[in-house]
Design a protein that fits this description.
Layout (H helix, E strand, L loop, with lengths): L1 H24 L8 H4 L2 H4 L10 H18 L12 E3 L3 H10 L2 H10 L9 H12 L4 H9 L14 H20 L8 H16 L6 E8 L9 E7 L7 E7 L4 H22 L10 E8 L2 E11 L2 E11 L4 H28 L23
Parallel strand pairs: 1-7, 4-5
Antiparallel strand pairs: 2-3, 3-4, 5-6, 6-7
Helix pairs in contact: 1-4, 4-5, 8-9, 9-10, 9-12
């Protein structure tokens, strides 16, 4: 009986995952996380359409489980113990490329990607001027003040992305030019207050339905653990993004501990988001990690029952000079893509016609097992 039950469970899991993979193959053109993008050359070697046969599907299913099993005791693969396929881990990606077919690897790449943010003509000109200016604070300020739009034609709502670019860079310029360093104190909260909070406020200033709460924030869906930041949507109590900060000088152990804490609790949030399936959408929790002076824009996606994927879509370093500021400007399209993915995910996840706190989420799969 146990053997028969196990076979039935495997059949159901494979059926569900096949549906997910079919949706992967029909997805729109997207731009993936920085780690997955580095592997694009491995995927684009084939000209035929990216599809997976039944045999490849079974192979894929077994390989993913084997990769998680084989890496649970590898110190650097600490998220494998949570059934999370960590695409920011070079060892994990190397194993996937060696064990999966090119098409199967491409499926993962497409599934974990976010839609590419395409700058309009004016936004593109602003970013181009910044990228081509000299490596000096004066040149950066001059490029930001030479707007391609006349004052009378400028509209704060229509051109909010330009305001965001200007706001983020000007904030850092003010600190660097007058104080010579972005971090007067290297502790996590002081550092985060100078780097993370201004960026997030700029990104979501046009979206008042999103509320941000900072430092020692709790949520009932994360076992009342304290977080350095949580983003909520409207009056819903389920977090849509979790943030944890370690400052500029934290060690590798602090990075590991915070990462495990955030992703374990992101799984708890995911469990809540997966209760009432009703739409063709994969639940996603968005994550911000700020450690060793680097801010990462990440996602955790549920791809099947109790199987998750971690991706990093953008990363910026706390700037200390004009070159660092130009690197932030160059990363803005990826940051905007992460923001837009969060907004799209949340709006689709909740019932827009119902102002109550009922969820309207979607992932047609088995109930997610409770996380530790």
């Amino acid at each position: 009986m146990k053997k028969r039950a196990r076979e039935l469970e495997d059949n159901v899991q494979q059926h569900v995952f096949k549906r997910v993979l079919d949706s992967f193959n029909n997805s729109n053109e997207t731009s993936g996380s920085s780690e997955v993008n580095n592997a694009k050359d491995h995927a684009v070697q084939v000209d035929r359409a990216h599809s997976i046969s039944e045999g490849e599907l079974n192979e894929f299913w077994i390989s993913i489980k084997d990769i998680l099993k084989d890496t649970k005791d590898v110190p650097s693969c600490f998220l494998s113990t949570l059934n999370i396929v960590d695409l920011t881990n070079k060892h994990i990606v190397k194993l996937m490329k060696s064990r999966l077919t090119v098409d199967a690897f491409t499926v993962i790449m497409k599934r974990t990607a976010v839609k590419q943010w395409i700058a309009d003509d004016v936004e593109g000109r602003v970013l181009s001027v910044v990228s081509r200016c000299k490596n000096s604070y004066h040149s950066l300020r001059a490029s930001l003040r030479s707007s391609p739009i006349s004052p009378h034609a400028f509209d704060a709502y229509d051109h909010h992305n330009i305001l965001t670019i200007e706001g983020i860079l000007t904030n850092f310029l003010d600190i660097l030019e007058f104080n010579n360093t972005i971090i007067n104190e290297y502790y996590e909260r002081t550092c985060a207050s100078a780097v993370v909070v201004p960026i997030i406020k700029q990104l979501f200033k046009r979206h008042p339905l999103f509320s941000t709460k900072w430092f020692e924030i709790q949520s009932q869906f994360t076992n009342s653990h304290h977080f350095d930041g949580i983003i909520f949507y409207k009056d819903f109590s389920v977090p849509v993004a979790l943030a944890e900060f370690g400052g500029a000088l934290c060690n590798d152990q602090k990075v590991e501990d915070d990462t495990i804490k955030v992703y374990r609790n992101a799984q708890r949030v995911m469990n809540q988001l997966s209760i009432n399936p009703s739409k063709e959408q994969v639940p996603t929790v968005f994550i911000l990690l700020f450690h060793q002076a680097k801010l990462s824009f990440e996602t955790l996606r549920l791809v099947d029952n109790c199987t998750y994927i971690r991706s990093c879509h953008a990363k910026v370093k706390a700037p200390n000079n004009p070159e660092d500021l130009k690197r932030i400007a160059a990363e803005m399209p990826k940051i905007f893509a992460w923001r837009d993915a969060l907004i799209e995910s949340v709006v689709q996840l909740y019932d827009r016609d119902n102002e109550s706190s009922s969820l309207d989420c979607a992932y047609d799969t088995l109930s997610v097992y409770s996380t530790p």
